[in-house]
Amino acid sequence: MMERFLADEDATVALARALAPLLQTGDCLALSGDLGMGKSTFARALIRARMEEPELEVPSPTFTLVQFYDGAPPLYHFDLYRLADPDELIELGFDEALEDGISLIEWPERGGDMLPDDVLTLSLEEEGDGRRVRLRGGQERLAALAVAFI
Ligand SMILES: Nc1ncnc2c1ncn2[C@@H]1O[C@H](COP(=O)(O)OP(=O)(O)O)[C@@H](O)[C@H]1O
Ligand SMILES: [Mg+2]
C-alpha cells in the first residue's frame, strides 16, 4: 500500500497527471471514496493527461455508466453508482475494456465480483482540509506506479 496527503485540489490533479503515463493496457483503477472526495476530479485530470487535451470535456458517466475515450490504449471511464446489478457490466462491454484498454471505475463497490482480481484501488478520504489518498493492488503494479507517489 502507498499513501500520501493531498492538501488541495491541485495536489489531486497533480497525482492524476503523474499516474497517467504509468498506466498500461489492462490496468483497472478503482476510485473509491465518499461523495465529494475527488474521484471525478481525479478521473477528469487523468483522462485529460492521457488524451493530451487539457481542456477536454469529461462528462460524468453517472447516467451512461461508461464514457469511452479513443486513446492509445482506449480509456473507459465507468461510474457504477446507478448499476442495478453487477451482471449489467457484461452488456456494457466491461470484459473488452479490461482486456484492450485502461479502465477507471467510480463507485467500484457496485461492481461486486465483476471487478478483476488484479484491480488497483485508489481511495480518497477526508483529512483536515485535504484528502488522504491510498493506492492498493498487486505488488508488481504498485512498484511500477510508486514514482507517482513521491
Ligand atoms: N486534495 C483535496 N483537498 C481538498 N479538496 C479537494 C481535494 N481534491 C479535490 N477536492 C475538492 O473536492 C471536491 C471533489 O468533487 P468530486 O471530484 O466531484 O468528488 P466525487 O467524484 O468523489 O464525488 C471538489 O470540490 C474539489 O475541488
Ligand atoms: Mg463523482
UniProtKB/TrEMBL annotation:
The keyword Cytoplasm applies. One of its GO terms (cellular component) is cytoplasm. GO terms for molecular function: ATP binding; metal ion binding; transferase activity. Its main location: cytoplasm. The keyword Nucleotide-binding applies. Belongs to the TsaE family. This is tRNA threonylcarbamoyladenosine biosynthesis protein TsaE.
